[in-house]
């Protein structure tokens, strides 16, 4: 393979070469048989284009607006855990890359840099991803810290009452680092300096009783808009709109939770039809090509998030690697827009793609 990667999949290979096997497996792996992990990518392959010709595409505008924030392209950084396992600069490097690409970074609850360090490192628009712990005052403290440090929205990840079964991590006896933001807040192993097995600890600390009524509580402790991440059905999409969320992220957690969840690109339209434009819908899972970004937008998403490719960029080439991953995906997306006859994201419609059910 050439030293300089030309697409996101080649960054994955560089990351594999750069990382200890245990960490690479932690990033790359999915739940159980990894059926959904493969499907997240392969379901994109089954969607084809209905490209339009003889449209003036001499100028292409990739920019879009998400919750009032104008970004350079509908490509956002998903929350992923422990960036310091990929690079010593961790989430600080990722945030700098987000700022220089003019996009949004969603900081993971399980970050290895603190809320304050990430906030101080760049002027990127940042959202904060939240898990709710049994000790609600800990969650409230983190929400307040995010708000105080200029984070613009909360992303409540709602597909994780317990952690999925990731067998590579079990085999590797993967030990995750301490949760930086929780230092001094928890008395359990999770915040210890000696590291912890987040898998075991999370099941002790994460509140599996969390339910729709708790959204009211969350809204009572913050003025930030709340997005829900992990929606895969029309039923839950309608509930989310009813409780007043600011946005929905169609996600199966990068196939790390429930194996045989649908590929997210296959679940997207059901959610789009249920929501009827009332709140913005984002999606993540398996986005590896600019054509994937286009397909997600054609099926009704306003933007996609990318998880693993960011971590692979970080592992392969640090901050610059993250930048390259985002710019590469933007370049591919721009080319797709030109070749399908779409000079701006507003021009991308349902008629530009054909799904498997519609095959002729
Ligand atoms: C994740 N994801 C995730 N999601 C979340 O809400 N909080 C988290 O801390 C994490 N951590 C995490 C770690 C790793 C290593 C991965 C791969 C994923 C899920 C993430 O936000 C996103 O949904 C998926 O990564 C999207 O799929 P792709 O782009 O990785 O295929």
List the helices and strands and how they pair.
Blueprint: H1 8-18, H2 21-28, H3 35-45, E1 48-49, E2 64-66, E3 69-71, E4 75-77, H4 90-100, E5 104-107, H5 115-121, E6 125-130, H6 136-148, E7 153-157, H7 167-172, H8 198-205, H9 214-220, E8 226-231, H10 234-242, E9 247-250, H11 264-275, E10 281-284, H12 290-298, E11 303-306, H13 308-340, E12 353-354
Parallel strand pairs: 4-11, 5-6, 6-7, 7-8, 8-9, 9-10, 10-11
Antiparallel strand pairs: 1-12, 2-3
The structure holds ligand FNR.
Q: What does the model show?
A:
Strand 9 (247-250), helix 11 and strand 10 (281-284) form a beta-alpha-beta unit. The protein is globular and about 65 Å long. It has an eight-stranded parallel β-sheet with strand order 4-11-10-9-8-7-6-5. A two-stranded antiparallel ribbon has the order 1-12. A two-stranded antiparallel sheet has the order 2-3. It is α/β, with parallel strands linked by helices and 360 residues long. It has one domain (8-358): TIM Barrel (Alpha-Beta Barrel). The two termini are 37 Å apart. The chain has helices spanning 8-18, 21-28, 35-45, 90-100, 115-121, 136-148, 167-172, 198-205, 214-220, 234-242, 264-275, 290-298, 308-340, and strands at 48-49, 64-66, 69-71, 75-77, 104-107, 125-130, 153-157, 226-231, 247-250, 281-284, 303-306, 353-354. It binds ligand FNR. Ligand FNR binds at residues 26-27, 40, 78-81, 108-110, 129, 157, 229, 251, 253-254, 256, 284-287, 306-308. Ligand FNR binds next to helix 2.
């Amino acid at each position: 393979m050439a030293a300089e990667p030309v697409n996101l999949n080649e960054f994955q290979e560089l990351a594999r070469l750069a990382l200890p096997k245990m960490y690479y497996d932690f990033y790359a792996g999915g739940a159980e048989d990894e059926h959904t992990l493969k499907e997240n990518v392969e379901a994109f392959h089954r969607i084809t284009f209905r490209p339009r010709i003889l449209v003036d595409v001499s100028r292409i505008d990739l920019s879009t607006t998400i919750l009032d924030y104008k970004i350079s392209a509908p490509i956002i950084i998903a929350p992923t855990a422990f960036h310091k396992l990929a690079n010593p600069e961790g989430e600080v490097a990722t945030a700098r890359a987000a700022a220089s690409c003019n996009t949004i970074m969603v900081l993971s609850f399980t970050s290895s840099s603190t809320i304050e360090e990430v906030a101080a490192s760049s002027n990127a628009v940042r959202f904060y991803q939240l898990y709710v712990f049994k000790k609600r005052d800990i969650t409230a403290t983190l929400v307040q810290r995010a708000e105080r440090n200029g984070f613009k929205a909360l992303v409540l990840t709602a597909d994780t009452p317990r952690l999925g079964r990731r067998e590579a991590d079990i085999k590797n006896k993967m030990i995750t680092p301490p949760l930086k933001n929780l230092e001094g807040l928890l008395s359990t192993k999770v915040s210890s300096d000696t590291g912890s097995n987040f898998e075991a600890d999370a099941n002790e600390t994460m509140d599996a009783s969390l339910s729709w009524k708790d959204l009211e509580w969350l809204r009572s402790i913050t003025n930030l808009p709340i997005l829900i991440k992990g929606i895969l059905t029309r039923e839950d999409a309608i509930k989310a709109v009813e409780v007043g969320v600011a946005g929905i992220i169609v996600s199966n957690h990068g196939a790390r939770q429930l194996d045989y969840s649908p590929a997210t690109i296959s679940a997207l339209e059901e959610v789009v039809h249920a929501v009827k434009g009332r709140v913005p819908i984002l999606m993540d899972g398996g986005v590896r090509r600019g054509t994937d970004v286009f397909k997600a937008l054609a099926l009704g998403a306003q933007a996609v998030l990318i998880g693993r490719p960011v971590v692979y960029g970080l592992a392969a080439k640090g901050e610059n690697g993250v930048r390259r991953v985002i710019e590469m995906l933007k370049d591919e997306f721009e080319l797709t827009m030109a070749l399908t006859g779409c000079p701006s994201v507003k021009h991308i419609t349902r008629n530009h793609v054909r799904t498997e059910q519609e095959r002729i």
